[in-house]
Amino acid sequence: MTSQNNQNKIYLIEGFLIKNQKLLLLFLIGLSFIIKLFFLNFYAQPYFFDVQTYIEAVEFFLKGISFSDVIMPLYPIVVYIAEKILNIQIFNILFSCLTIFITFQLLSFIYNKIIFKFLIILIIAFYPFNIFYSITGFSETFYVLFLTTTLLFFYKDNIFLATLFGSLALLIKPVHFYPLIFFIFYFQIYYFKKEFKQSVLNILVCVAILILVMSPWWIFNYNKYNKFIMFNLSSTLTLFIGNNPLNKTGGGTVVDDHDIKNFPKRFSKNQQDFSYDLLKGYPGFSFDENKNKVVFIEGVEGAINRHKSYLKYSQKYIFDNPDKFIELAFKKFVRFWRLWPYSQEYNSFKYIIISLLSYGPFLILFIFYTFKFISKFEKHTFPLILMIFYFSFVHMILISSIRYRFPIENFIIILGVYFLMSEIGKKIKLR
What does the alpha-carbon distance between residue 382 and residue 376 come to, in Å, rounded to a whole number? Predict the structure, then answer.
């Protein structure tokens, strides 16, 4: 009798949510927007240099001056326009709220239960890390919007729009390039089981869309470097930073006395995860006797040579020190999945508790789901699983931070709650 009463209550809740889902979704998105605005205005944050760097990149480009070799173009353009209108933080809040709406649509393809969908939306709308990144100038919130939209269109069997948004996302952060290519084949051939001729035609159109979206950037890079550069020159730099004898943490930070003096809330001790002095004698670098340190050789040729030198040095270090590489990879893995922030300014008791209570439970549930997935493959959740572990793997090789985990945290929440809800659903049926 109790089981029947519980079932009836669930039916009543489901009926209410279905009947009022548009109004409730709008209410949660609106409330999320208001709360994020509140934190933007009343929550003091340390200063991050990212926004100014993005603005300067666009300004230099407009003046015909060469800018950073490690920045992708789309988000700096958005920041530049946003700062002319209001500020990027307001736009990031809007992007974050739009992601809530997109995620609601995506959830129908994971576990089409209205209670599940609203529980996820309730969580991600007020998830502390979503709030934090939405009120910064970081590119992560914008990237998450495009990443989520890409997956939504794949699930909706709209491979062309999926490729379009996935390609645009590459112009923000290119880390998902290989999963994007894989998903084009996965959804066509395996998930929707399209006929061979149709699949080939669709894949060719997707390749054309990818080339069309990326071509302006490729042309820009070719004019700048006199050679084809698919994304930017950051990959080998981060490989070097994450794989050298100075790196003991798995991160990519250099903190000196100047930083400690000028930013005491952020830094309290020296830290050096890398040094360009390690590259003395390598192409792209020269030794400045006056400064007594290794400096960059200016110009395009210098940038290309550094790109090659980072790769050469990193490969040699990894091959010569496989034990150290494995040790660092483990530290990066731990740092990526860390339960609370590593940075000093977010390492207080307050932030540790917030992080443990918000991220911690979903991580545990996700681990349980991973074991379940290993024992029983589910093709509808595989894309989320792949994205999560691919991001983790990439940052075990390069450098790691919980910031790099953020793009897949909504997926961790989704799969964790999916595990919980499906297990509860089984028990209710058994009764």
Answer: 11
